[in-house]
């Protein structure tokens, strides 16, 4: 059933490395099970036995012990006795009660809506087309729009995935030069709320679909910025709200193909004042592939291919998009590690 490398040395051989990678799907489902069962909520900040966890989760004790051992093997728990466990800092992120929880992100990216089209990755490589549409009968965002609960989970996952950037971005970019920022495709407003909190003189708009904006008002209220933030629903391929002097797009450009991205950026350029800027926040692929961040930038690139039809991009590819949209060649500044994002700033052309 498994390669003999599964019980091999701590530093895997070449065979062990391949085995570890192919078991990645199983690791993801192990995290999903932990989130679904509420394992980390039961363990909390203390030490718990597998029997205690099983009783509180309503699960079978021996099977629970096996799940906890697997989580320990993945570095999410630490085993301190024969059946006793504590959460590691990484594992604690699966606790849905924490303000820095990653539980929705885990649920979304291990859900069949994200994983089923990956079974047809080879087809997408052959054709250059997404597989999601063939599997689900609609494109990714249309499918979300038909399922409100799934759309809310996606919004929560995007919010959780944005928190680290939201903490870093206000200190990495001078938003104080501007008066009104328009967060294009900004979802529930997590990023905009962080920026407005850090810059009290700034006002902002989050612009997205009605489904994407569903939780934004609550986010602004919780952050205490509701008096300086507004929500506008619309289609950013058709138009973007005028009146901003900074147009912010985080994790939006990678969802779409080159033609769509150039059109979206062109809509921003059309309403940009002479002193205004477009700020794109995206991962930056190196010009030559290298082993970095566990291969995540490249897996994300394939996820864009399979599920939504977008792509991750290099410096040169971002420059080409900006120029095609009527913007200047961008100034690109990578955020310091551990962040994988870069700040890509473009001005009006000419």
TrEMBL record:
Residues covered by the O-methyltransferase C-terminal domain: 118-327
Record domain O-methyltransferase dimerisation: where: 20-94
Under the heading Gene3D superfamilies, the entry gives: 1.10.287.1350, Vaccinia Virus protein VP39 (3.40.50.150), Winged helix-like DNA-binding domain superfamily/Winged helix DNA-binding domain (1.10.10.10)
**Protein name per its UniProtKB record:** Methyltransferase
Task: Spell out the Pfam families in the cross-references.
Answer: Dimerisation, Methyltransf_2
Keyword tags: Methyltransferase, S-adenosyl-L-methionine, Transferase
**GO BP, sorted A to Z:** methylation
Provide the GO MF annotations for this entry: methyltransferase activity
- Annotated PANTHER family: O-METHYLTRANSFERASE CICE, PUTATIVE (AFU_ORTHOLOGUE AFUA_4G14580)-RELATED
CDD domains documented for this protein:
AdoMet_MTases
Q: What is the lineage of its organism?
A: Bacteria, Bacillati, Actinomycetota, Actinomycetes, Kitasatosporales
